[in-house]
Design a protein that fits this description.
Structural class of chain A: alpha/beta
Strand order of the largest sheet of chain A: 7-6-5-8-9
Largest interface: A-B, 24 and 21 residues
Strand content of chain B: 25-35%
Order of helices and strands of chain A: HEHEHEHEHEHEEHEHHEHH
Shape of chain A: globular
CATH class of the largest domain in chain A: Alpha Beta
CATH architecture of chain B: 3-Layer(aba) Sandwich
Order of helices and strands of chain B: EHEHEEHEEEHE
Structural class of chain B: alpha/beta
CATH topology of chain B: Rossmann fold
Number of domains of chain A: 2
Number of domains of chain B: 1
Number of helices of chain B: 4
Strand content of chain A: 5-15%
Number of strands of chain A: 9
Number of helices of chain A: 11
Distance between the termini of chain B: 6 Å
Radius of gyration of chain A: 19 Å
CATH architecture of the largest domain in chain A: 3-Layer(aba) Sandwich
Shape of chain B: globular
Radius of gyration of chain B: 16 Å
Helix content of chain A: 25-40%
CATH topology of the largest domain in chain A: Rossmann fold
Distance between the termini of chain A: 21 Å
Oligomer: heterodimer
Number of strands of chain B: 8
Largest sheet of chain B: 5 strands, parallel
Strand order of the largest sheet of chain B: 3-2-4-5-6
Helix content of chain B: 25-40%
Chain lengths: ~300, ~180
């Protein structure tokens, strides 16, 4: 019988290949469930999940919320901007207060790196990291790999290039770990200022020329330029970034193969990717969103399975 | 562990034909009736019945679905072993259909209870009937009884009824195993 090897989902770094396989197999079943006329199963009827979002989010928050509802869990939603955090309450106090309301699973997004790990050491609940600063965003990486597996039937041996702001991207780091665990080859591509200095120590290669990177890859995962995390100018202008690292249809047509285009959202249309590409049949951006619900259902279900009363 | 044979392959063959005939008596040409096998083990029985009905009794376009009940079970988090899901493949709506739920062994009735909840998610059936190969009497936790049964067995709780199918075990047979 199969278990996850971890008690929380804090990062892909803690997982092994079997965990990823188990999550994907479980997600396959949930994907069938969410395409039924009645898209709900009663598994988590007596489980309460708190969604703690200390940072803005649309997709991830809605995706977790719908995943929890599809599993019949009870939900508490919390956004830092409308809470006592503003009055000076600490993270542990906030969470312990929420746990006193008998919460079993905490889904947390936080601007600080390691917030999930910190929380898992201090409170008695299952923690799912929904993004911690520039560190990890495990469910996004899982749904990205799952979408590649769905489109290309396997992740093993595929060449994936991650394009854009690698420096500020938790999606990039989690994706690198997840893809490598499944035997894919990973390259990162972007302006040198947005590529972390020691990134090659993770076993990825670096390419500064977008055309070369696209010629090499089977899948291009295009990231957003995270202006909100930039305190200095990393490139001269958005216009120049678009000219050097923006993906457009002309560029894709010039390749001698058809690559798969992914984007974790939100898209800055016309900056890192043109509307034409984002809405083309090469793009699996909306499949990623659908798969996100199935993956999150699988993760919540597998962790909830470990809760004993 | 001792084991005693309850049904051999010949007896199973006869029982399957008898069950098929009983189904035809009540459902004629199956125009408004679907078979739903409960995963994983009821699927073998359901597939076998479908084969007999379509090959030997010329029932055309018989619909068969396989239903996984893992996410509807009442022992989630209450058992030591994790529950492992299998595939659900029901590519038709069961709204207003006569549904025949099919499983190999009826014991506590809890799987069937889960199956009844699960089936609701595919529409509102007109009628649901239950067909089992083995009905273990005196062991029910819920008020659930089969409409069609292959063989009734009186077994104590320490005993286990094991159904083997030639698709996975090389031969058809039903055993009563006793843990002593």
């Amino acid at each position: 019988m199969k278990h996850l090897s971890v008690n929380h989902l804090l990062g892909i770094k803690d997982l092994n290949k079997n965990d990823i396989d188990l999550i994907f197999e479980t997600a396959d079943h949930f994907k069938e469930v969410i395409n039924r006329p009645i898209k709900k199963v009663p598994s988590l009827r007596d489980i309460t999940v708190a969604n703690l979002f200390y940072e803005n989010s649309t997709r991830t928050k809605l995706s977790f919320e719908i995943a929890e509802k599809r599993l019949s869990a009870d939900i508490l939603n919390f956004s830092a901007s409308q809470s006592s955090v503003k009055k000076g309450e600490t993270l542990i106090d906030t969470v312990n207060n929420i746990l006193s309301m008998k919460v079993d699973i905490v889904v947390m997004r936080h601007p600080n790196v390691g917030a999930g790990v910190f929380l898992s050491k201090h409170i008695d609940a299952k923690i799912i990291n929904a993004g911690d600063g520039t560190h990890e965003h495990p469910t996004q990486a899982l749904l990205d790999s799952y979408s590649i597996r769905e489109k290309l039937s396997t992740v093993k041996g595929k060449k994936v290039v991650i394009i854009g702001d690698i420096l500020h991207s938790r999606v990039a780091l989690s994706n690198i770990f997840a893809l490598q665990l499944q035997g894919a080859k990973v390259k990162v591509c972007g302006p040198t200022t947005l590529i972390p200095k020691h990134i090659t120590s993770l076993g990825v290669t670096v390419e500064n020329n977008l055309k070369n990177a696209l010629e090499w890859c089977d899948v291009a995962n295009v990231l957003r330029v995270q202006n909100e995390r930039m305190e200095i100018n990393y490139f001269p202008s958005t216009r120049e970034y678009t000219q050097l690292f923006g993906i457009n249809q002309e560029l894709l047509n010039s390749l001698n193969k058809k690559i798969v285009i992914m984007h974790p959202g939100p898209i800055n249309r016309g900056v890192e990717i043109t509307s034409e590409v984002a809405d083309s049949n090469q793009s699996i951006i909306l499949n990623q969103v659908e798969n996100g619900v199935a993956i999150r259902m699988a993760v919540i279900y597998l962790l909830a399975q470990q809760i004993k009363r | 562990m001792s084991s005693k044979i309850l049904l051999n392959s010949k007896e199973i063959e006869i029982i399957l034909h008898r069950l098929a005939c009983q189904l035809i008596e009540n459902h004629n040409d199956f125009s408004n009736t679907v078979l739903i096998g409960l995963q994983p083990r009821g699927a073998f029985l359901a597939n076998r019945l479908k084969e007999i009905l379509s090959n030997e009794y010329q029932i055309k376009d018989l619909k068969l679905g396989l239903l996984d009940i893992t996410f509807y079970r009442d022992d989630f988090r209450r058992r030591n072993e994790p529950l492992e899901a299998t595939n659900t493949t029901i590519d038709f709506l069961i709204e207003d259909k006569n549904v025949i739920l099919i499983d190999d062994v009826l014991f506590s009735g809890r799987s069937i209870r889960s199956g009844l909840s699960a089936i609701q998610d595919f529409g509102r059936p007109k009628l649901v009937e239950l067909l089992v190969l083995i009905d273990r009497r005196f062991s029910r936790h819920l008020p659930i009884q089969p409409n069609y049964k292959g063989r009734q067995v009186d077994a104590i709780n320490q005993e286990k009824v094991k159904v083997c199918w030639k698709e996975i075990h090389n031969k058809d047979a039903v055993y009563l195993e006793h843990n002593s």
